[in-house]
Amino acid sequence: MSVDLVWLRQDLRLADNPLFGGPLDEHLLCVYVLDERWLADGRLGSARLGFLWQCLIELRGCLLAQGSDLLVRLGDPADEVAKLVASEGAGRVRVRHDPGWEEVRAVDRLRHRLANECRVEVLESGMLFSSASLPLAIEALPAGFSAFRRKMREMVPQRGIPAPVTLPPWPPSAPRGLPALRRVCPRADRWRASPRGGFRFTGGEAAGRARLDDYLWGSGAVSHYAHTRNGLVGADFSSRLSPWLAHGCVSAAQVNDALHAWETEHGDSESSRWLRFELLWREYFHWAARQDGRTLYGRETAPLGGDAFAAWCRGETGLPFVDAGMRELADTGWLSNRARQNVASFLVHDLNVDWRLGAAWFERCLIDYDAASNWGNWGYIAGRGRHVRAHRFEVLDQAECYDPHGDYAVRWCPELSSLPAGEARHRPWRHAPATFPPPLAPSTR
Ligand SMILES: Cc1cc2nc3c(=O)[nH]c(=O)nc-3n(C[C@H](O)[C@H](O)[C@H](O)COP(=O)(O)OP(=O)(O)OC[C@H]3O[C@@H](n4cnc5c(N)ncnc54)[C@H](O)[C@@H]3O)c2cc1C
């Protein structure tokens, strides 16, 4: 009996997933391993874990429909995969090249453990471009986004590939299924996003495709993207595709293909071009993370938290625009790009707190966390690592520009609702006593 093992990570979809492409062996074993350390050290928060579980449940349904299945394990990913290779006699492991340092190391460890026993195939997926098609070697990637963009100007993104029609059967003796979330992490099972966010994220490939369809063809909100993308309140000011892209429920190539189809009917516009431009930022941070390796996360010493950091996490800095953002993040697991930039800049440049603490807090809270985009954007704002220049946002000016009536501030800080609309709602204020537990200092990588 010959077995292929597909080790799924941030590629939780069937369509446009090369792990399921090409000739596969007689039997197929599909595995996801939740790294127990992420639960133990708190870096995987309830919101993201809940979303992830929805993705896994949906993916299992899709795999079953194709004649396969999914096994979800908890533990050290490389160890668990190695054990399954041994017990099922797999001859090949397929895994996506995830850009995070630990993800790369996990594959190296697996290779080392399996030595000549089994072939480990690392495939690229989820991106607009493949490394082979880049006009430069990854080691020669320019430090800044603008230079990268100029180099990519003539490049045509790859097209998505369809989902497989059928998949090889499950190895007869292999375990199946996934544990209930309430057993893995009861607090994540109980977690619900606040309806104040005005949007409900549901994990999985079907929900991701539905959001893409709705944003393009349903509401047609994409046609206003260039003018609304800095929005703060509402469901459609931006695509909100990030959680599905981060977990790989949809790929960047699929988004680009859909955008292309939309442009064929509606003509290309400033808005559709701008959305594609944002996907290029994602691309840049992903390739940059591959080039940066461990340095993406900053120095090796553990950063120290303090009162200012704890107040920032709780949304109690006294700056309404910042507090609103931090509360939205905690209560929904998501935040607009404009708010992310401001809360990050405030932490680093106004509170003078180590940027790595902020990045680690985002890692815990965001449902769309992805190592490359998160640590890359934080480094960009802090001016660390590959980013020679820091990016500071004047929070009060930004509040007046993007939240002129203070509606966003009041939405998340209802204590301010008695103040007249406008500038009064942006002034520094005294917050109520702490209501959230103080955060832990994150571990180093
Ligand atoms: C401090 C900070 C941390 C961030 N952490 C993350 C993260 O962990 N995961 C994440 O996906 N994005 C992160 N971003 C980028 C960006 O804020 C989000 O991708 C975006 O807000 C998601 O909303 P959207 O899907 O509606 O984006 P849209 O504006 O609709 O853009 C479409 C897609 O383009 C990509 N994109 C847009 N802007 C960026 C950007 N600056 N960097 C990388 N990709 C981008 C995303 O995949 C996004 O889904 C971070 C930004 C900052 C400033």
TrEMBL record:
Question: Which NCBIfam families does this chain map to?
Answer: crypto_DASH
Could you confirm whether the keyword Nucleotide-binding appears in this record? no
Q: Which Gene3D superfamilies match?
A: 1.25.40.80, DNA Cyclobutane Dipyrimidine Photolyase, subunit A, domain 3, HUPs
Query: What is the required cofactor set for this protein?
Result: (6R)-5,10-methylene-5,6,7,8-tetrahydrofolate; FAD
Q: Which Pfam families match?
A: DNA_photolyase, FAD_binding_7
Could you list the residue ranges that cross the membrane?
Answer: none
Which amino acid positions bind FAD, per UniProt?
Y225, S238, S239, R240, L241, S242, D368, Y369, D370
GO biological process terms on file: DNA repair
Instruction: Sum up the protein's function in the record's words.
Output: May have a photoreceptor function.
The residue ranges of the Photolyase/cryptochrome alpha/beta domain are: 2-128
Record bears the keyword Transferase: no
Q: How is the cofactor bound?
A: Binds 1 5,10-methenyltetrahydrofolate (MTHF) per subunit. Binds 1 FAD per subunit.
- GO molecular-function term, one example from the UniProt record: deoxyribodipyrimidine photo-lyase activity
Protein name, per record: Cryptochrome DASH
